[in-house]
UniProtKB/TrEMBL annotation:
The keyword Transmembrane does not apply. NCBIfam families: PRK09184.1. Signal peptide: none annotated. This is Acyl carrier protein. InterPro entries: ACP-like_sf, PP-bd_ACP, Ppantetheine_attach_site. The keyword Phosphoprotein applies. Residues 12-94 form the Carrier domain. It comes from the Bacteria. Keywords: Phosphopantetheine, Phosphoprotein.
Length: 105
């Protein structure tokens, strides 16, 4: 309702949103969200994303949540290590006042 404070997303909700975003943004149509391990590395043997995929994911996260990572390469590498590390970053941003809302549908 208008005028009501936005409900904060839980870590589990953020992780679910990220898994759906990975599947959608990278067109992994044969993958189900529950098949993506939150602790698996996003790159190489884990989820299997290459550097271009991670860049596309970063752009999708920006479009979806309105947040960007502006730290150095090492910071970005740490944030984009896994779904869980990315969810932790978004949860921290939410605690700083960024409004994260669940997607429609």
């Amino acid at each position: 309702m208008p005028g009501e404070p936005a409900r904060k997303l839980t870590r589990e909700q953020i992780e679910a949103e990220l898994k759906a975003l990975i599947i959608d943004a990278l067109k992994l149509d044969e993958t189900l969200p529950e098949e993506i391990d939150s602790d698996a590395p996003l790159a190489s043997a884990g989820v299997g994303l290459d550097s271009i995929d991670v860049l596309e994911l970063a752009m999708a996260v920006h479009r979806r949540f309105g947040v960007t990572t502006e730290g150095d390469a090492a910071t970005n590498q740490r944030i984009y290590t896994s779904v869980r590390s990315l969810a932790e970053f978004l949860e921290h941003e939410q605690a700083r006042g960024v409004t994260l809302t669940p997607s429609e549908g």
